[in-house]
Sequence to fold (228 residues):
Amino acid sequence: MKVSIIIPAYNEESCIKESLQSILKQNYSDFEVIVVDNNSTDKTSEIAKSMGVKVLFEKRKGTQWARECGRSVATGEIIANLDADCLPDPDWLERGVKHFSNKKVVAVGGPYDYYDARWSFRIFSMLFQKYIYRLFNFLMQKLHSGAVLIGGNVFLRSETLVKVGGYNTSILFYGDDTDTAKRMSKEGTVIFDTKMIVKTSARRLKSQGFFKISVIYIYHFFKTLYSK
Fold:
């Protein structure tokens, strides 16, 4: 199955090249990369174009607007979400795609490894995602209340994403992954693969505070989960 990797990017000139280098080293060959410049004022687009990937421009601010822009031209049977600072291992695509041999599977997600965070947070975060996120994902689907996905490490069956209305552009950032997981789970199985790890930067956590960001994420998770 062909995979369309969509990467929203706003002023990401410092990390987009390294991220694309990792993506282009995948050992799964049937994929396209779509970088959506979300109204950047730096050289994000120029750098991405130099790497030979497709670059689009979306002036409406928001991760979901950028993803929806990318989805509108994507040709893959599977849509994969990455952030502009993600560094996937060479087997990332292969590991994600294999789950879709099961026709009931509509989405697959995995953990983040905050590679530049303090070692204590890095270990705690990984253990929390591997055990708590996986448990929550299982229980939520049993209770028909949603599922768990991490926004920048996700595979979505394209036809199902179309069926549920694409990305919810009314959400600019926080809660976007919870909303997508909730809607996709109504159409099939959502898997949280604890071995499908993607390295990503903890820069936002560092700049805004680990505790503060954690509280914001938890708040928007439950707010989105229980909204109509």
Q: What stands out?
A: The radius of gyration is 16 Å. The domain at 3-225 is CATH 3.90.550.10 (Spore Coat Polysaccharide Biosynthesis Protein SpsA; Chain A). The mean pLDDT is 94. The chain is about 40% helix and 20% strand.
